[in-house]
Structure formats: structure tokens, C-alpha cells
Amino acid sequence: MALNVEIWKREIVNGLFADNSFAANSVDDSAYVNAKTVHVPNAGAPSGVVKNRAELPASISTRTDYDLTYDIAEFTTNPIRISNADKVELSYDKRNSILAMDRAELIEKVHEALIRDWATGITNKVVTTGDSVAPTVASATGNRKAFTKADVLSAAYLFDKQNIPSDGRFILCDSAMYYELLASLTESESNAFLASADAQKGILGKLYGFTFYNRSSALRCTAAGALAAADSTTATDGAGCLAWQRDCVSRALGEVKMFDQSGDPTYYGDIFSFLVRAGGKYRRYDKKGVAIIYQGTPA
After folding, report:
1. Does 207 fall in a domain?
2. pTM given for the model
3. Which residues constitute the domain of residue 185?
């Protein structure tokens, strides 16, 4: 009987992970990542100004400042075993593949949590107003309103009313909402948007003062625009974008630490795991400069 020849390439195709370059556009608190809690002092309201003051002496007041805080979380991977057979019998380097994928998965989960940390408690909302489209988040039913250039303009106006600096404004959206936005642009607007892209930095384009980032998923929101639970399966949920100004959000990202037990005599192989400390939050007690853009529901 003839023998079949099996040919194995010496590489292995690893998993794919989202682009997390958006996170660099925030205030870096990483110097405090080894603390339990990060404090961000916020100044209270100014004392006030009077034109042509008639009453003297003027009344004296005190300023109440605010202590905004956020906690640092610890993210860890599940320990994984690499057997002796996997190291000596396979044609590809399983050890390097495992370590690379586990580290990438850890970074992925940290940035997913960071997006939620920035959005948690935010009361500034913009609801989408476009044509009726199919929902894009898992378990959602019915239709939603598409994300359009008019909604970006509404977010820009919201930030303008809050006196947020025009420099350093960003929007993070999922892939579906990004393509909805592109579909709402005229040909000349689309050309200008795409011409401002910088693939090396993960920037997709610029519109109405916002620089756009995209990843496979961004936010999951309730029908009222609140942040939905990470594991929500509610049928009325919809997708959401996050808009922010660079100085209005914080990130604290620590170094990834690897723990290893080589040649474990009870497992007959090597054991590995990873750990990283991370956290973040909006920086202003009044929550200005951060907004959720969520999918509206057609009537």
C-alpha cells in the first residue's frame, strides 16, 4: 500500500487581534500603575467676575476642589503547559506561538477594558440619525439608525459648547459604524477623509476636527445610550462609538510580566503565564470632553 507523504510548513498561523493604537491619545498615568488608586485632582469653579462692582467689601468665598480617582486592575492569563513532546516533535515553534498569542490576548483584553473605563459613567450622548440598518452587535434584533457625518457634526458641536479644545479630538468606532459613516460622505468628502489617513499610526481619516480610529468592536450600549454590560445579550442593545479629547481621559499601562516554571517534574513540561496592571478613566469631574455616540432605534 502506498504511503501518503505529509508536509508540514515550519510556521504556524497565529490569531488576529484588534488595533489598539487609539490608547496613546490620552494622558499617560503609567508612572502610577503600581499604586492601588490613581488620584486626579480637579479644580473647582472660579470665584466669579463682577463688572463695575458697587458693593464693598466684596463677599469672600472658598473654592471646593474635587478628587477624581480610579483603581488599577490586574489582568492575568491562564497558566498554560508546553509539553516536552510539543517542543521536540513539532515542525513549528509552538512555544513562541503560545507565548506570542497569550501576550497579544492579554493586551487585547486590557484595551477592551480601557475603552469601557473611559465610557463608564459618561452622560454626554449623541444618538445616530441615519437610515435604518441591520444591527451589528450579537443578540440584537430589529434595526438601528446608521452612523453618519451629521452625527459627527453633532459631537463636534457638543464639544464646542463645552469649550473643549479643538486640537486632539478623536472618535473610536467599530468597523460597521465606520463603513456607515463612509457611505454618508460625498465623493469629495470621502476623498478628503481618506487622504488624511495614516495607516502606520492606525488613523483612518479626519472629519470635522475628529481623528478616527477603528477596531472590530468598540462599545455596546443600551437603547437609551448607557454602557451595556460586557456580557449583555439584550436584544435592544446597539453598537456605540466613543468620542474624546486627548486631555480628558487617562491611561495607566504597566509592563507585561511573564511567569515561568521550566522543566516542571510533575507536569513534564514548561508552565507559563502573563500579568499586567492597567487602568484608566475620564479626567474631569464634570465629564466634559468625552461622549458616547450610540445607535438610535427607528420609530
Report:
1. yes
2. 0.88
3. 124-248+284-294
